[in-house]
């Protein structure tokens, strides 16, 4: 635990100013932006007169940007000055539902969840741990270490724009991390575990989040490793927490959910398309940068579809044909939305695609969980 807790204090504003300085382009104003409470300062540097200048990001918020998008932490957000709304934006609430759903799947797979007050209360606390606290910690930490990329791709985001100070960001990271680990420990005591498995799952997930975003490992620099780590965090870890809370986490479930995380890898690739320019500028080998947009699109949908078809085949082989057919039926609309939105333009239609297709994927997770519980 000390290895995780000793890492966050090392964040310093000096790292932003003195190391890995962003070579920004003239799409930014050359005047410094100053703030009172040790706010971040973004300055444009000199650019070669012959250098090709990119267009401003299409998703830059206008004066009439959406307040709803701001609260969800997605693009098209309105600029906000309320510090609590900014803090919520950094946690990206739009990313919480898959983790919450993962807990539901784990509880269902345990076969020991009952619709009584105590079990419902335990599941809600586990969802709070997985979603607002530890996912919020992950997203805030990721935004902190992505501040240089965001200064290129999304300069209006809270950290590169200076809407929130260094100390406020670091405080938020600490509070969310410690709050999530505290809830994990509480769940182990509540469940009467001899071994604090939920706490160690939370600690392992927190460490994975740190090495995903932070140097020197910064797993997200490699498109394959980083996206699989992200997929595992969104599918495997909350499932394991929910199942361990109400039952026993078995080796076959660990293997099945780890393989299912390949679909999560595909989901993670969707988010890489909007960051191509910044990733290329800073040398990050996301799959759209490494393989080009056209190839990366097909890797993305292939990882999502082939994984689910393989799991359906596993369920069929395990003598559960109705669950296998239900899972196959849920794959069909995903494929339709892939052709309708994502494969046409993964940048323009990323939000529409995820909103349309992902509900069917998460329902497929629940079908798989119910199948393994019987």
Tell me the β content.
Answer: under 5%
- 3D shape: globular
Q: Stretches where pLDDT falls below 50 for ≥5 residues?
A: 1-60
One letter per element, helices H and strands E, the order comes to HHHHHHHHHHHHHHHHH
Could you report the average pLDDT, rounded to the nearest whole number? 84
Number of helices: 17
Annotation, overall tally of beta strands: 0
Helix content, binned percent? 55-70%
What is the alpha-carbon Rg in Å? 21 Å
The biggest beta sheet reads: none
Q: Give the end-to-end Cα distance, rounded to a whole number of Å.
A: 36 Å
Structural classification: mainly alpha
Main location: plastid
Transmembrane segments: 173-191, 197-212, 224-241, 253-274, 322-343
Region (Disordered): 45-64
GO molecular function: chlorophyll synthetase activity
Describe the structure.
With 374 residues, the chain is an all-alpha fold. It is built from 17 helices and no strands. It is globular, with a radius of gyration of 21 Å.
Gist of the model:
The chain is mostly helical and 374 residues long. The protein is built from 17 helices and no strands.
What keyword list fits this structure?
374 residues; mainly alpha; 17 helices; globular; transmembrane; membrane; chloroplast; plastid; chlorophyll synthetase activity
Chart the SSEs and their pairings.
Elements: H1 2-5, H2 13-18, H3 67-72, H4 83-91, H5 96-110, H6 117-145, H7 147-153, H8 158-161, H9 166-191, H10 197-213, H11 223-246, H12 251-270, H13 276-281, H14 287-291, H15 293-317, H16 321-342, H17 350-373
Subcellular location: Plastid, Chloroplast membrane
GO cellular component, one term: chloroplast membrane
Keywords: Chlorophyll biosynthesis, Chloroplast, Membrane, Plastid, Transferase, Transit peptide, Transmembrane, Transmembrane helix
